[in-house]
Amino acid sequence: MKKFSKFLGVVSVGTLAITLAACGSNGGAEAGNNSASSDAATPVKIGLVTKTDTNPFFVKLREAAKEAAAEEGAEVVALAGKFDGDNEGQVAAIENLVAQGVKGILITPNSSTGILSAIKKARDSGVVVVALDTATEPADAVDATFATDNLKAGVLQGTWVKATLGSKAPSLIMLDGTPGGTVDTFRHDGFLEGMGLAEGAPEISGQENTNGDQTKAQTAMENLLQRVPNANSLYTINEPAAAGAYQAIKAAGKQDQITIGSIDGSCTGVDNVKKGIIGATVMQFPGTMAAEGVKSVVEYAKSGTKPTGFTDTGTVIITDTPVSGVDSKDTAWGLENCWG
Amino acid sequence: MSSPLTDSVPASPIRGARLLEIIRQPLLGPLAALVIAVIVFSFISDNFLSTANLSLLLQQSVVIGILAVGQTLIILTGGIDLSIGAVAILGTLVMAKIGAIHGPWVGLAAAAGVCILAGLLNGALVAVLGLPPFIVTLGTFTVFFAATQLYAGSQTYAAIDGLQTFLGDSFKIGTFTVTYGILAMFVVYLLVWYMLKQTATGQHIYAVGGNPGAAQLVGIKTKKTLLYVYGIAGLIAAVAAWAAMGRIPVADPNAFQQANLETITAVVIGGTSLFGGRGSVFGTLFGMLIVSVLRSGLTAAGVDALYQNIATGVLVIAAVALDTLARRRSS
After folding, report:
1. Which positions, given as ranges, span the membrane (chain B) (predicted)?
2. Which residues on neighbouring strands pair with residue A104, listed in sequence order?
3. pTM of structure
4. Contact A176, A237 (CB under 8 A)
5. Within chain B, which residues score under 70 in pLDDT?
6. B positions 126-165 inside 8 Å of A (CB)
7. What is the ipTM for the molecules in this complex?
8. Do residues B258 and A92 touch, judged by C-beta distance below 8 A?
9. Domain A45-148+286-307, architecture per CATH
10. Please, what sign has the CA dihedral across residues B194, B197, B198, B201?
11. pLDDT digits 0-9 by tens, A210-222
12. CATH topology of domain A150-283+317-337
């Protein structure tokens, strides 16, 4: 047993040493970046808390924030929840950032209610908190919000689909995200407004929740097409859902029958519009959200002026089949500006 | 306990001392790793050893830390509980919803009742029907998770009473913030440590995990012991649920999706054998703190969260490898 515990100790230390070596080199590289791009003696520290580490949208948000921070001579510490809905993870992230002495926190709140007390504590200790991408409920739980106006995005999407159908009566399928989600509800309601339909209208032939997941969307669409073979229009909560639905539509040989509208504006999504998989997508600008958020915290650090209110970071509809009455950009523009 | 037991399960005071030795030895590795990690990170990050940071570290460990005690008990019997996080989440929703209607004390009692029942269901399927714990709890995890979603209507419920969030309240010792949740966690560890070390039931748990056949032969009621362990794990999940309401005053059916895995990580790094019969709750405490310190320290040092996951994974595999080596050597 003695030998064993000795061995245990040695291995534990070894593992830690490896981890620390990895961290040492990483930290060194980051310090180098800072000194190269900034003249300030102590760069403004800004925390970024996203819903997860791995969703491409949040990866883009993080990259854009780091880029903007480098320009402003600030430093971004990026943390995240472990999965969509990880309130505990986001609260821990906020606490740790406050402990590290950040000037401001940019956050894409997981749940509009679950993390409000942590946000309040952070604000009470003098940290400015800015919501990115998703607003909190109530919206004034944070100092300011930089996000897509998702209702407007939905209206754009619906207007384009309706115009594309022309005189045909809609037989609409809706692939929603997560029931009760703030963003999901805004987009859904906006789309129906753009289509000129009321909730529960008979033109809505089918509806299914997909959590924005490509595989679930494909399964849902396969099943819905069994029930609604004559569907001619499709709402999707995001581009992965649209891509999944297209697989099902193609397998059923109904590509020319169904018009697909989507939202997001990722480069993959725009590419799918170019290939004709998605009819049109509404682009959002996470890069702008992050950059504006970083700037607002740097401004606060300089002048003490806190950002306020809701800032719409803009939406543009991307399609290669424009319709009259809807301002749109083509996929060439889209590929240049995807998630800008 | 009157019958002579096998080598690993002591009956006499002398053998009791030997048992203590066995339980204590695997503690050295995790404890050493913890101390080294704390020292190293205190050099890397200026404020790592600050009272504010250490308090945060503990506050953030409370829910998983409490749940991990239940997981330790189950793993000591040679089982595993993949449903433990889902039971706790169900507990938070019962606490919030029933509490809103019938008052906070009733809500708390109802949550404890539901969690114990859930634990006993697992225990009955394992002990009485003799089904493998992995499969049983994989199944009940799915059932509990879906039941929680149905019960919550996919909505969150805010805590409406001070009793529900009591474990999140705090007082200060100097500049160190102590939440009642941190105290509750240590109380749970001490109680279960005492139960394992000083009571006959504790000895039975080690015996059932070490060699169920032999345990039965010497007259230990293995089924009863298993039911007891799973029931206690359910009760502990209810305490964790209470602590979770204190941490974030909202019952959210989507929360703690990785709690099951995090408790297993803590138990394994803490040196408790996945094969049952060997380990201790304080090992689990150290195991969990090692993961927390690693995360907190690496975050302060600016290391990407994905590298932190790799580090945690490597630790788990190293710990299991050591356990397997130790078993081979002793057999």
Report:
1. 27-44, 64-93, 105-128, 134-152, 173-196, 227-245, 266-294, 306-326
2. A46, A128
3. 0.79
4. yes
5. 1-26, 331
6. 154-156, 158
7. 0.74
8. no
9. 3-Layer(aba) Sandwich (3.40)
10. positive
11. 988 899 999 999 9
12. Rossmann fold (3.40.50)
